[in-house]
Amino acid sequence: MQSAIALPFSQTSLTRSNRVLGSTGSIFSTPRSLQFCGLRREAFCSSPSNHLTLRSDRVRIRSTRFQVSAAATTNGAPPKSFDYDLIIIGAGVGGHGAALHAVEKGLKTAIIEGDVVGGTCVNRGCVPSKALLAVSGRMRELQNEHHMKSFGLQVSTAGYDRQGVADHANNLATKIRNNLTNSMKALGVDILTGFGSVLGPQKVKYGKDNIITAKNIIIATGSVPFVPKGIEVDGKTVITSDHALKLESVPDWIAIVGSGYIGLEFSDVYTALGSEVTFIEALDQLMPGFDPEISKLAQRVLINPRKIDYHTGVFASKITPAKDGKPVMIELIDAKTKEHKDTLEVDAALIATGRAPFTNGLGLENVNVVTQRGFIPVDERMRVIDGNGKLVPNLYCIGDANGKLMLAHAASAQGISVVEQVTGRDHVLNHLSIPAACFTHPEISMVGLTEPQAREKGEKEGFKVSVAKTSFKANTKALAENEGEGIAKMIYRPDNGEILGVHIFGLHAADLIHEASNAIALGTRVQDIKLAVHAHPTLSEVLDELFKAAEGDAKIKLNTNEDDPRKWRRDDEKEPSVSKDLVVRSASMSSFIEGIYARVLSLVSRIFV
Ligand SMILES: Cc1cc2nc3c(=O)[nH]c(=O)nc-3n(C[C@H](O)[C@H](O)[C@H](O)COP(=O)(O)OP(=O)(O)OC[C@H]3O[C@@H](n4cnc5c(N)ncnc54)[C@H](O)[C@@H]3O)c2cc1C
């Protein structure tokens, strides 16, 4: 997967242009678009050699077996001595993860930041959005009279203070930003302020004209919201996620362009706070990129019962901000025929059509690197590839800027992987083991392949694919929370037990996915993980049930008996929703476990009392 467009949670499959509108509507083509907040002015002014940090002379630079780019010789000879072992351009989560791991490994490390530490995730992404979603989750619960009554609770009308909610998001971002900054300072990472660019092999310029050298350089410059042509962003009524996270208003009616995970999360926030939402999606179905069965169920729970309508198979070809008493105008054209379909008049529009890499002005031409739709081409070890297809020595790119998997933890994991390599340990990150989550209520999570992807792979490579499913409806903990809506689904190879993908929709799905992602990362097979023990009563038992539901090869086969209630879970079982059989079987399983639990408890109490 080389680009964001191929990713599970990418927002769109539209062709991206490098022409990206910034928040002010100006063309985001020069480094000037970054604001220089001057996080650490002293770092900007002082010479890097003044910074005392850990240094290891034992650092071994891996010699590469690949062909090395000619750029190493055409843009000046590499320096003979270095200011740093590692320079990272961009202090987002990717850069931060790499920097911490680098100092831990004894590398003298500098990180260059042109705006504020924390990048997108901390300041304009994961962190503030999860703060807003924490509020929307509570609002949703408090507003649900039926839900409250089922607990025997009585709550007077729920309300919120918009500024209070916005402050919660902003305060959390500030706190996490400070944590990130302090963690790097404490470990001795030099934080240098200014716009960074690559001057030549192992040479970086930052700020006005500070030049520093390093044995290795990591580019971690992240991404910015992608705004398609024809859409005018004014930051008030036509906004991107950057603006929306400030929650300066809660419009009565907001159109969300793009139904990927960012659009979906904002629909959760806005509808909980009282807005009506209209999704505009270029593809024929909502939530493209999710496993189709999961998006179908998610639509039934997250879209249909809420104040949300949608237009699929259409482009928003022109969006004009509200002005002089006129509403926001959205021109819709058919995605295939390009014919005019409709004109919407709404209070606001949120453009959630994906992210574009921020790689302009990086001096890539100095090392003969040509971006692909703005993304920096890298190999599986994050080593940058030049215009001739050769590796650029000592230059790496991680995170959103390479487009492999545009998620915070992926950026950080790629950074750690690079540090492993430059300190002498080969490491290739398995991107198929990296989980992804959408923090709606309930949550969606996934790791590995979707069912159609797995079937395609199976057909090509000649193996059979099986699917197991289980439900939250039979899980004691979920039922205690009155949150039985949800399924977990595993796609695997019945011949050898390899787990190809796991998808969860339900309470705390984002936390539950890690057992599956670790299993994939470590190559654990279904026949082994199904013997693992899960505490009762926990949501983790949903996965326990899922693994146990898998049928295997002759040695591990569970379904020899046609009357076995597990039969319904075979891949020839079409019904995605929860069958009565499953509820009954799992409920009896739960009571069975409860029985064992009670017996253990009584045994323990007899011993200790
Ligand atoms: C609304 C929203 C919600 C999200 N939610 C999640 C989530 O829940 N989970 C998740 O995993 N991901 C989430 N993401 C995605 C996540 O934020 C990104 O994948 C992640 O931030 C990428 O990290 P990065 O280090 O590659 O880049 P960034 O975080 O974008 O950081 C890049 C940094 O580099 C700096 N920079 C850029 N160019 C230069 C230069 N030339 N010189 C100096 N500094 C420079 C920038 O100022 C920035 O600080 C979300 C994104 C959005 C927009």
Characterization of the model:
The protein has 609 residues and is of the alpha/beta class. It has helices at 41-45, 71-74, 93-104, 119-124, 126-143, 145-150, 162-187, 241-244, 261-272, 292-303, 408-422, 451-461, 476-480, 509-522, 526-529, 540-548, 580-608; strands at residues 84-89, 109-113, 190-193, 196-200, 203-206, 210-219, 223-225, 238-240, 253-257, 276-281, 308-312, 314-320, 328-334, 340-346, 348-351, 355-357, 383-385, 391-397, 436-438, 443-448, 466-471, 487-492, 499-506. The strands form 5 sheets. Strands 1, 2, 3, 4, 5, 6, 17 and 18 form an 8-stranded mixed beta sheet that branches. Helix 3 runs parallel beside helix 7, helix 5 (126-143) packs antiparallel against helix 7 and helix 5 (126-143) packs across helix 9. Mean pLDDT is 83; it is low at 1-66, 70-74 and 553-609. The chain binds flavin-adenine dinucleotide (FAD). The site of flavin-adenine dinucleotide (FAD) has 40 residues, from helix 3, strand 2, helix 4, helix 5 and strand 4. Belongs to the class-I pyridine nucleotide-disulfide oxidoreductase family. It catalyses: N(6)-[(R)-dihydrolipoyl]-L-lysyl-[protein] + NAD(+) = N(6)-[(R)-lipoyl]-L-lysyl-[protein] + NADH + H(+). Its cofactor is FAD.
Output the keywords.
disordered N terminus; eight-stranded mixed sheet; alpha/beta; binds flavin-adenine dinucleotide; 23 strands; single chain; five-stranded parallel sheet; 609 residues
